[in-house]
Write a structure and sequence with these properties.
Layout (H helix, E strand, L loop, with lengths): L6 E4 L2 E4 L9 E2 L1 H5 L7 H14 L3 H4 L3 H12 L1 H27 L6 H10 L3 H13 L3 E11 L4 E11 L2 E9 L14 H10 L3 E5 L4 E4 L8 E7 L4 E5 L5 H23 L30 H8 L1
Parallel strand pairs: 6-9
Antiparallel strand pairs: 1-2, 2-3, 4-5, 4-7, 5-6, 7-8, 9-10
Length: 307
Amino acid sequence: MTQPSLAHATDFGRMYSRSTTSTPEVPSITTVIGQEHKDLTGWAGHMAATELIADDRLPEAVGSTTKLRSLARRASSAAARFRDDAAARGDRVHHYAEQVARRALDAEHEAEAAREVLRAHDELAFADQFDHWWRTFAVKPLAAEVTVWNHTLGYAGTLDLVAEIGGRTCIIDFKTKGLTRKGRAKPLSESVVMQLVAGMQAEEMLVDADAGGWTPWPHGDGSPVLLGVALSAREVVPVQANPEVLRSHWHKFWALRQVWEHMRRASEAGPALQPIGPPPAPAPEVAPETAPETAPETAAESAASTA
């Protein structure tokens, strides 16, 4: 998969610049979607427990606190290693899909080399399934790995494929998937609809990264078909984003874009908490001034006052 030349890793997630010499300006589509919190603690715990009980060293570690801690440390990173391995596999499969599209566009390509990389990782089945889907759906690519920009809302992204299928323009996002226990491709997340509709709402597409050359996005009108395509080693499962829900998912994407903006502003505003010391000690109490005591009346004065 070609790394988008205008994409940059930042403290606020992946962001895009307008050219290779300019600074990042807007978040990527996937960064915006990532503002939606997803609790993966249960999955991470399951991955850790599964790796631990499958570790051949577990029987000999029983009774040894040191050995058990070592196995536990290894198991605790199982979810992260699975994620990283899946991401690397996804990059290889996406790269092959891009090269097949480039070959069909009569552009420079590395289709055979990309296929050999998959073979070296024992992932050739992904290429075979992709090729079968490509032929069955008679895919006619229009653009591959195309970077798009939306000024109105402020975001950018790179679309996997724009193609003509059955006489209709399609915006396509590939997702590499593992298999269920029944040997079927795992289903796509509904978040792919936000990703596709954000691509459809693009306003410009990149034509020259070095010079920062852009041209109006030609595929937003005419209601393009939005396809999510699950690529697995056993099958390819394409699904269409339901046209009736696109507005709702676009509004959700819009709201998540506002969340990203407010998170960035809050982060740039400075520390949210600051230390504070105890209040100053109270001033010591001062006794009130007292009037001088009056001398007692003499007997004569008392008699005169009562006369």
